[in-house]
């Protein structure tokens, strides 16, 4: 009987090990291109699914809300960008460190890491909500929906727009803790190589968003405020899925307060890597505001041309971003394992895939540009949007390479290089956009995109060389080990 019991235990243990190693297969053993596609395509799909949040909310608000509600969605975008930026601080920083831990084989601090990033993201969300609610009126003034503008009768500051934006922003702020926690959990799932499961959680979120939009906007007529609460419901649904999945399948996940740790070996690499993601997300918010400010003087058609063109090139950009961000766990695992040959092969394959995919989209996009612009924006934008669309299409390769370099630096704990590449993107964009607008007008504004992104990609390549390329330190200085642990290993 004892022998049978031992055999059964051995079988169960082997089965558990086989189950837990399935996600590691793509990180460690799978052919490189297969691994990149397996991790990158679900990430691209997840990004596309996430973008559906805005599409779904815009549809319901546009059909069952007012013009003021639609204006509130636009004015509240910087708040959404800020929440997303702070979420990346803990989500990306935590997931890359976890993947490096798995690669190095030192997972002793994995539970402490997961507990820290979960509670840190919740705490940051609560702090953001409190500060935002206390400074709601100044915040609305910054967004352009101030009380003064409403009393003055400004078109963007009507009483209806102010009320709608106030309700929308307030609901976003109150739901910030849930948003940050959801993003952090999704990143932890991806950090362990569960690319499909991270996408499944987002799908649950979209379904919950649809249901909540119907109830809150269609039935209760809550407008923009209802769309913000629908996003909170979507985040709750995704959180439940990720918590159940990680609790069942991950031996490295914990939300126990007893596992929580603010040790420097955890906090420092999380924040140093996450800082570049924070800066990158904030750059997107700033660039949107800058572009709107510069393009509006050329008329509504010019501003609409940028909006339509940006939506049209989301397909190749989402694919490139998905491959780059999906490969982060792959880069981080190879770095942590000290496997330079696999790291080099993964990076080379990712560069080739992004360049081929971007160039492959470029030809049919340029040939069919008139038809695409007509479908997306109507005949009124056909002439104005041509140059904008052409310029944005030609910038796709540079965009993909910039995102790839930042993702690679984040995965390999090269925080200074990641911040440098992010800063280069911001500086190149601002300088090129301002110079193009001042020297060549609307055409210069459009053509500044490929120039800025190509310059940022070149600087990223230079930073890659300066930071050591694919060389991995002999000390594997990715997951620091305590002195007492070193002593134990030595003895």
Any key phrases for this structure?
491 residues, disordered C terminus, mainly alpha
What is the straight-line distance between the termini?
Answer: 39 Å
Number of helices: 21
Q: What is the 3D shape?
A: globular
Overall pLDDT: 83
Number of strands: 0
Uncertain stretches: 1-20, 153-157, 475-491
Provide the helix percentage.
over 70%
Radius of gyration: 24 Å
Question: What is the compact description of this entry?
Answer:
The chain has helices at 2-28, 32-64, 67-75, 77-104, 110-134, 136-143, 147-152, 159-174, 176-191, 195-219, 223-249, 264-295, 300-312, 314-326, 328-337, 340-367, 369-377, 382-394, 396-411, 415-466, 483-490. With 491 residues, the protein is mainly α. α2 (32-64) runs antiparallel to α11 (223-249), α4 runs antiparallel to α5 and α10 runs antiparallel to α11.
Describe this structure in words.
By secondary structure, the protein is mostly helical. The chain is built from 21 helices and no strands. The chain has helices at 2-28, 32-64, 67-75, 77-104, 110-134, 136-143, 147-152, 159-174, 176-191, 195-219, 223-249, 264-295, 300-312, 314-326, 328-337, 340-367, 369-377, 382-394, 396-411, 415-466, 483-490. Helix 12 packs antiparallel against helix 19 (396-411) and helix 12 crosses helix 20.
Give the topology.
Elements: H1 2-28, H2 32-64, H3 67-75, H4 77-104, H5 110-134, H6 136-143, H7 147-152, H8 159-174, H9 176-191, H10 195-219, H11 223-249, H12 264-295, H13 300-312, H14 314-326, H15 328-337, H16 340-367, H17 369-377, H18 382-394, H19 396-411, H20 415-466, H21 483-490
């Amino acid at each position: 009987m004892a022998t049978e019991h031992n055999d059964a235990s051995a079988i169960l243990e082997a089965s558990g090990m086989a189950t837990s190693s399935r996600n590691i297969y793509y990180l460690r053993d799978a052919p490189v291109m297969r691994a990149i596609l397996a991790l990158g395509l679900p990430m691209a799909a997840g990004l596309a699914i996430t973008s559906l949040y805005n599409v779904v909310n815009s549809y319901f608000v546009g059909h069952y809300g007012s013009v003021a509600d639609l204006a509130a969605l636009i004015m509240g975008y910087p708040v959404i960008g800020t929440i997303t930026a702070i979420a990346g601080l803990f989500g990306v920083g935590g997931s890359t460190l976890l993947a490096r831990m798995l690669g190095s084989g030192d997972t002793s601090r994995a539970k402490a890491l997961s507990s820290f990033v979960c509670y840190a993201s919740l705490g940051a969300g609560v702090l953001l909500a409190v500060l935002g609610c206390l400074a709601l009126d100044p915040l609305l003034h910054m967004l352009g929906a101030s009380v003064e503008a409403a009393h003055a009768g400004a078109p963007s500051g009507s009483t209806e727009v102010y009320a709608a934006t106030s309700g929308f922003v307030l609901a976003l702020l109150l739901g910030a803790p849930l948003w940050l926690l959801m993003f952090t959990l999704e990143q932890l799932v991806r950090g362990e190589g569960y690319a499909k499961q991270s996408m499944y959680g987002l799908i649950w979120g979209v379904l919950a968003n649809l249901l909540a939009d119907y109830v809150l906007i269609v039935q209760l007529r809550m407008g923009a405020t209802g769309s913000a609460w629908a996003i909170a419901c979507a985040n709750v649904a995704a959180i439940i899925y990720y918590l159940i999945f990680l609790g069942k399948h991950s031996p490295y996940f914990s939300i126990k307060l007893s596992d929580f740790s603010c040790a420097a070996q955890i906090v420092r690499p999380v924040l140093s890597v996450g800082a570049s993601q924070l800066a990158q997300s904030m750059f997107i918010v700033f660039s949107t505001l800058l572009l709107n400010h510069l393009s509006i003087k050329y008329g509504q058609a010019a501003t609409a041309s940028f909006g339509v063109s940006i939506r049209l090139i989301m397909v190749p950009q989402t694919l490139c971003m998905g491959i780059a961000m999906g490969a982060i766990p792959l880069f981080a695992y190879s770095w942590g394992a000290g496997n330079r040959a696999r790291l080099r092969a993964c990076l080379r394959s990712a560069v080739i895939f992004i360049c081929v995919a971007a160039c492959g989209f470029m030809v049919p996009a340029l040939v069919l540009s008139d038809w695409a612009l007509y479908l997306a924006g109507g005949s009124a934008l056909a002439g104005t949007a041509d140059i904008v669309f052409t310029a944005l299409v030609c910038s796709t390769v540079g965009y993909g390479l910039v995102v790839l370099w930042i993702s690679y630096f984040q995965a390999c704990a090269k925080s200074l290089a990641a911040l440098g590449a992010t800063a280069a993107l911001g500086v190149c964009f601002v300088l090129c956009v301002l110079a193009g607008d001042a020297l060549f007008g609307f055409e210069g504004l459009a053509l500044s995109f490929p120039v800025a992104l190509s310059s940022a990609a070149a600087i990223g390549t230079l930073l890659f060389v300066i930071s050591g390329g694919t060389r991995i330190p002999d000390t594997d200085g990715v997951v620091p080990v305590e002195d007492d642990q070193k002593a134990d290993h030595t003895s």
